[in-house]
UniProtKB/TrEMBL annotation, chain A:
One of its GO terms (cellular component) is cytoplasm. This is Queuine tRNA-ribosyltransferase accessory subunit 2. PANTHER family: QUEUINE TRNA-RIBOSYLTRANSFERASE ACCESSORY SUBUNIT 2. Keywords: Cytoplasm, Metal-binding, tRNA processing, Zinc. It holds the Pfam family TGT. Belongs to the queuine tRNA-ribosyltransferase family. QTRT2 subfamily. Heterodimer of a catalytic subunit and an accessory subunit. Zn(2+) binds at residues 320, 322, 325, 351. It comes from the Eukaryota. Its main location: cytoplasm.
UniProtKB/TrEMBL annotation, chain B:
Zn(2+) binds at residues 303, 305, 308, 333. It comes from Kalanchoe fedtschenkoi (Lavender scallops). Transmembrane segments: none annotated. It catalyses: guanosine(34) in tRNA + queuine = queuosine(34) in tRNA + guanine. This is Queuine tRNA-ribosyltransferase catalytic subunit 1. Residues 246-252, 270-274 are annotated as: RNA binding. Catalytic subunit of the queuine tRNA-ribosyltransferase (TGT) that catalyzes the base-exchange of a guanine (G) residue with queuine (Q) at position 34 (anticodon wobble position) in tRNAs with GU(N) anticodons (tRNA-Asp, -Asn, -His and -Tyr), resulting in the hypermodified nucleoside queuosine (7-(((4,5-cis-dihydroxy-2-cyclopenten-1-yl)amino)methyl)-7-deazaguanosine). Catalysis occurs through a double-displacement mechanism. The nucleophile active site attacks the C1' of nucleotide 34 to detach the guanine base from the RNA, forming a covalent enzyme-RNA intermediate. Belongs to the queuine tRNA-ribosyltransferase family. Substrate binds at residues 91-95, 145, 188, 215. InterPro entries: TGT, TGT-like_sf, tRNA_ribo_trans-like. Heterodimer of a catalytic subunit and an accessory subunit. Residues 13-364 form the tRNA-guanine(15) transglycosylase-like domain.
Length: 397, 418
């Protein structure tokens, strides 16, 4: 793995390029990791995955715990690792124990031996050695070390414990690190800035390729505290290594992360929108975010289950060039949702991913142009001002 | 009449033809996947084109409930609505009502049923069915017929057959778009050759663009099934397409094609995919079986589809019945298998190699079947070990032998007799 930061925007935000082993193209950061189920997108079939912008869409996140349902580590190893398993040879893969949807940390059951997760096949206590054995078979390009993630409500004592365990497990993971893979040191510490700082400082001392910041998106969040915690963490990390965060997915959260110097984002946001029947429609340019209130949108997304789309023969966004918008109408997707047909999710996941990759591309542009801070501020203000803002497609056309 | 049917090649009764419909030029024999509600199991329309689907079937009953045929009409028809550039066929809606709704009742006027939406009694007449189908706008539309289970006997069969003949005239009269949509009549008459013959003659007299053989695939034994198909194909005009409704097992398609049928439809390939079963030359492969968990071979090593080129049985095994993508990938393979079968039938008939194709097709299945009943001695041992794989699920052995006999009896020899 190679990583170079090549632009800093005044007052926050940095742009860089990341190159991972199997993915020949350079992936520009800040970048979005596409979430998967068993290393394939939830609903986008592999042939349509290639219709998404490249190389933007070439970084996939998966949880090794997805494979508790099989295939076994031996079989995956026989096939040649997770990349061969899903036949996406020109893609990069990042292994993170939790996936923010089906695999979630269960901090009450985590103990000194390993981290506990709720999975579709039951609760599982994952020990560092077992985790590293999985990674040796799956051969991801990037992996996050095993961590003891705690939610915001954890006590001071529990926060401290989470840092102690995470740092200890990091050493165990590094010792068992599969060759040719890039290990990212996990940084936790709950909602406690001092513990976060301590964790970041400890992890920064280790020989890792990058950093993974956990503990977000688990329970209630506070914008202010998120920014503060990220700042404390990033301040204590070397500049030349990439920083990946899980659990920050909303546009505002992404901007907040970028402002603090985060390079890679992994979240369940697209998945949640898609399964909820929502399509992203927000324009990136400030000038295009007018307030038109017809009550159908919060300015970010539209709910395609809504009856108003029954006869709407326009695409989700007229300006969008994704497979869905080039081929299908809102009326058709509305029908597919009504009759519970799986194609609805396929079409929505394609559009939402395409749109969000565009948002990241826009972020990279404003960072490089040195105007990230004003874009960020303006974005937050427009959103706050017009929480009922709408039809993005009208203003985008 | 809005179609052209041109027979390009024959082998005895089997024929390979070009069927030109308003939206697509098809090659027969062909299998039509069922896209009940304007979509097929998570597959995108460009994937369906890639797989080689020529005609997709839509269910009038479901589409009339949601999104309603008025809406489809208003938005430019089903082709436009689902963005499917190739051909479509809709059924009459009658079969769905009779099979899905317990309280459906058939009278001379039409099919009376309770609306699943509000429970009110509703009536589907031949006129209404055609109106719905005119609104949907498929290339081929089906007449409303009086459907009776083939396992029923007695005067009800006769009544249904005559009623079907009376209703076809009402359908023809109600059909408003004969220039862009082709109305197919359905031959009924149960398993009774005399009733079938009366219906056949009545239908042929009406000079319709195409004909369907109805009332089969409902649990009758294979011998009776094939005999009816053979009788119908023998009497239907040579220059019109023949469609055997509800037929979708690969073996049945091969046999019916040998008997001179051209078109088939069935939910089987996609439904069975949902339960984790793949169609393969030897029959079916249950991906849910534990033996698949560590099997790194593709579903069918000989298959050239996107799924077989890229995924192992082990991976599909971990997905089927658990993840949406599992049934999506398996549906893709199964439909690809059916399309390949259709193409192989077409080209083998066209190139005079139909008997070879059928023999090979049956051998693949028969080999397994023979092993199953322990008749090892007549087969070369090398083959036995290759194929003796307890993971293959066995089709009903009787099906295979009867199928083979019927084929040998009726098709592969000249001068078939009934
Ligand atoms: Zn789009
Ligand atoms: Zn295949």
């Amino acid at each position: 793995m190679k990583f170079v930061v090549d632009a800093w925007s005044k007052g926050g935000g940095r742009a860089g390029v990341l190159q991972v082993g199997s993915c020949p193209a350079l992936i520009e950061t800040p970048a979005l990791l596409l979430s998967t189920r068993k290393a394939l997108p939830n609903f986008i079939p592999p042939d349509l995955l290639r219709s998404l912008p490249s190389p933007d869409s070439r970084l996939l996140q998966f949880s090794p715990l997805h494979f508790l349902e099989g295939p076994s580590a031996n079989t995956i190893s026989d096939i040649g690792g997770v990349r061969s398993l899903v036949s996406l040879h020109e893609f990069g893969f990042a292994a993170i124990p939790r996936d923010s949807t089906a695999i979630l940390p269960e901090f009450d059951c985590t103990n000194k031996l390993g981290a506990s997760f709720n999975t579709p096949s039951g609760r599982h206590l994952l020990k560092p050695a077992e985790y590293m054995r999985m990674l040796a078979a799956m051969k991801p390009d990037i992996w996050a070390s095993l961590s003891d993630e705690v939610p915001s409500r954890a006590t001071d004592k529990r926060n401290k414990l989470s840092v102690d365990r995470t740092v200890k497990w990091l050493d165990e993971c590094i010792a068992l690190s599969p060759p040719g893979t890039a290990g990212f040191g996990a940084i936790v510490g709950g909602w406690d800035a001092l513990e976060r700082q301590r964790c970041a400082q400890e992890v920064a001392k280790r020989n890792v390729s990058g950093y993974w910041i956990g503990g977000f998106g688990l329970e209630e969040t506070s914008d202010q505290i998120t920014s503060q915690l990220l700042r404390v963490v990033v301040e204590n990390l070397p500049e030349e290594k990439p920083r990946l965060v899980s659990g920050l997915g909303l546009p505002e959260e992404v901007l907040r992360g970028v402002a603090q110097g985060i390079d890679l984002f992994d979240s369940a946001y697209i998945h949640q929108l898609t399964t909820g029947g929502f399509a992203l429609t927000f324009p990136f340019e400030a000038a295009k975010r007018h307030s038109i209130s017809d009550g159908m949108s919060d300015g970010t997304k539209i709910n395609l289950r809504a009856d108003v789309y029954r006869k709407d023969t326009s695409p989700i966004m007229k300006s969008c060039h994704c497979y869905t918008c080039m081929n299908h109408t809102k009326a058709y997707i509305n029908h597919l949702l009504n009759v519970r047909e799986m194609l609805a999710q396929t079409l929505l996941e394609i559009h939402n991913t395409y749109h969000y990759l565009g948002f990241f591309q826009f972020i990279r542009r404003v960072v490089k142009e040195g105007r990230f801070q004003e874009f960020h501020q303006e974005f937050i203000e427009t959103r706050r001002g017009h929480s009922r803002v709408v039809p993005a497609d009208d203003v985008c056309a | 009449m809005a179609l052209q049917f041109e027979v390009l090649g024959r082998f005895n009764r089997a024929r390979a033809a070009r069927l030109t419909l308003p939206h697509y030029q098809c090659q027969t024999p062909l299998f039509m996947p069922v896209g009940t509600q304007g979509t097929i199991k998570g597959l995108a329309t460009n994937q369906l084109e890639e797989i080689g689907c020529q005609i997709i079937l839509g269910n009038t009953y479901h589409l009339a409930l949601r999104p309603t045929t008025e809406l489809i009409d208003e938005l430019g028809g089903l082709h436009e609505f689902m963005n499917w550039p190739r051909a479509l066929l809709t059924d009459s809606g009658g079969f769905q009502m009779v099979s899905l709704l317990d309280l459906a009742e058939i009278t001379e006027e039409g099919v009376t049923f309770r609306s699943p939406v509000d429970g009110k009694p509703m009536l589907l007449t031949p006129e209404q069915s055609i109106r719905f189908q005119n609104q949907i706008g498929a290339d081929i539309i089906m007449a409303l017929d009086d459907v009776v289970k083939t396992t029923i006997t007695g005067p009800r069969i006769e009544e249904a057959m005559y009623r079907t003949l009376r209703w076809i005239d009402r359908c023809i009269k109600a059909h408003e778009k004969p220039d862009t949509q082709n109305l197919f009549g359905i031959v009924q008459g149960g398993l009774d050759p005399v009733l079938r013959d009366i219906c056949l003659r009545g239908m042929v007299d009406r000079d319709l663009p195409g004909y369907a053989i109805g009332g089969l695939a409902g649990g009758e034994d294979k011998d009776s099934f094939w005999r009816v198909v053979a009788q119908c194909t023998a009497s239907l005009p040579e220059d019109k397409p023949r469609y055997v409704m509800g037929v979708g097992y690969p073996l049945d398609i091969v046999v019916c094609s040998a008997l001179g049928a051209d078109m088939y439809d069935c939910v089987y390939p996609t439904r069975t995919a949902r339960f984790g079963t793949a169609l393969v030359p030897a029959g079916v492969l249950k991906l849910t079986h534990n033996a698949m968990a560590d099997d790194i071979r593709p579903i069918d090593p000989a298959c050239a589809c996107m799924v077989c080129k890229n995924y192992s049985r082990a991976y599909i095994h971990s997905m089927v019945t658990k993840d949406a993508m599992g049934s999506q990938l398996l549906s893709y393979h199964n439909l690809h298998y059916m399309m390949k079968l259709s193409r192989d039938l077409h080209s083998s008939i066209l190139h005079g190699k139909f008997p070879e194709f059928v023999c090979k097709f049956l051998q693949n299945m028969v080999l397994i079947f023979t092993l199953h009943i322990d008749v090892f001695c007549c087969l070369k041992s090398t083959h036995i070990h290759d194929a003796y794989d307890h993971r293959w699920d066995i089709v009903n052995p009787l099906t295979v032998t009867t199928g083979q006999l019927v084929l040998l009896d009726l098709s592969l020899h000249p001068a078939p007799r009934f």
